[in-house]
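Hi all, posting the design record for the shared folder.

TITLE: backbone redesign
STEP: 1 of 1
STRUCTURE INPUT:
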């Protein structure tokens, strides 16, 4: 990190405010960022370019404030990513009002992966949506996708956890500072995500969120991604804002097929599909979209292509057949390249030692109960958020450890 360069960017951001589009409007008047910085040091000469509020901020900003912020970030493992940094995502540079800088904590290599999709949805998802998110993200992670989310409760945290718990990567874009513990229910997952992914924010580390900061961060969430997946959205859901931003940025918009067309919780899904979004009925709807241009980045691409061709040559039709072919192709390729223990969901037995601590906790509770239990019963007994329980149950079911009865209750195998 070039300390002087970071200092100059921070000075500019401090004068205009985090996320202000005025930064770019004024910067057009100068040959470089450094020249703009030098001018800000003499704000009285900038009256024809700056608003009164910005003039006042420029006058009150001093070197000690900026240096203190830089030192704080260095002491708390926060990397300050500037617009001209070589690892600043190229895709993000192209959006309207890109963040002048980002505060980052975690694995910076996540920013080098341009094979990304954002996943958004309601904070109070249905059981169907939680299971769909977990299963879909698990498969996308296996293919090498980096999952972008907003770290909100509900669909966002379900997507991020599904990624990191399946050896994938995730980037959580915050609408507040990195060191502001929000939302409270998700604080316990921070270390797990940070160890396997990345947190980013355009706001100062201790900044609290505001009414405008969370919608503003959505432009970053969609801007980092090839496309945005809307899992569940009501007619007035905030997820629709991200979907619109994605469309305006020229990104793809995928929308999960509603579980129930008459359920108001999926009103936004229906509207988006009617307006031309890609109806998402399974993993193939995403992989077909990107295979041609990103096959070199897709894990086990040869196996996937073989499965696709197999489906076409055999004359199989229908969503189930296509899904099965892609999954089989991926699974066979994975076994050849990575000789590690594989949990077989079709086998009557499974290796308990392969379960994570959280999965084992849920499995043991079901085993001890000796009867099917509802997800909310498990959540109450284990004092765990229902979204977390549903995510774990999905993984356990996929791995053959548990089975669902009528999609509502679960029992250990």
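Okay, here is what came back for every position:
SEQUENCE:
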């Amino acid at each position: 990190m070039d300390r002087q360069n970071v200092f100059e960017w921070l000075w500019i951001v401090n004068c205009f405010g985090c996320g202000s589009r005025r930064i770019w409007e004024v910067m057009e008047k100068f040959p470089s960022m450094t020249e703009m910085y030098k001018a800000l040091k003499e704000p009285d000469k900038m009256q024809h370019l700056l608003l009164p509020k910005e003039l006042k901020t420029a006058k009150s900003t001093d070197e000690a404030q900026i240096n203190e912020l830089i030192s704080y970030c260095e002491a708390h493992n926060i990397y300050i990513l500037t617009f001209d940094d070589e690892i600043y995502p190229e895709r993000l540079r192209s959006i309207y009002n890109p963040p002048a800088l980002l505060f980052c904590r975690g694995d910076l290599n996540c920013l080098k992966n341009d094979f990304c999709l954002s996943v958004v949805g309601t904070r109070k998802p249905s059981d169907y949506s939680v299971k769909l998110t977990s299963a879909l993200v698990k498969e996308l992670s296996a293919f090498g996708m980096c999952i972008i989310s907003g770290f909100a409760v509900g669909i966002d945290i379900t997507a991020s956890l599904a990624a990191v718990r399946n050896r994938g990567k995730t980037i959580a874009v915050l609408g507040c500072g990195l060191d502001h513990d929000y939302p409270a229910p998700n604080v316990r997952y921070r270390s797990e995500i940070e160890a396997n992914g990345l947190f980013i924010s355009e706001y100062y580390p201790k900044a609290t969120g505001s009414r405008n900061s969370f919608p503003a961060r959505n432009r970053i969430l969609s801007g980092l991604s090839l496309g945005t997946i809307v899992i569940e959205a009501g007619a007035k859901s905030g997820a629709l804002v991200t979907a619109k931003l994605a469309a305006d940025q020229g990104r793809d918009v995928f929308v999960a097929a509603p579980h129930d067309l008459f359920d108001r919780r999926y009103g936004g899904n229906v509207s988006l599909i009617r307006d031309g979004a890609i109806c998402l009925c399974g993993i193939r709807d995403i992989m077909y979209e990107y295979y041609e241009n990103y096959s070199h980045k897709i894990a086990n691409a040869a196996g996937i292509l073989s499965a696709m061709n197999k489906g076409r040559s055999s004359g199989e039709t229908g969503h189930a057949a296509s899904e099965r072919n892609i999954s089989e192709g991926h699974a066979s390729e994975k076994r050849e390249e990575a000789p590690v223990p594989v949990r077989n969901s079709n086998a009557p037995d499974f290796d308990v030692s392969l379960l994570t601590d959280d999965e084992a906790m849920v499995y043991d509770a079901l085993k001890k109960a000796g009867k099917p239990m509802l997800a909310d019963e498990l959540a109450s007994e284990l004092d765990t958020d229902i979204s977390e329980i549903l995510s774990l149950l999905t993984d356990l079911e996929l791995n053959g450890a548990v089975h669902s009865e009528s999609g509502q209750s679960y029992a250990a195998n």
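COMMENT: The first strand starts at residue 79 and ends at 82.
Let me know if anyone wants the other runs.
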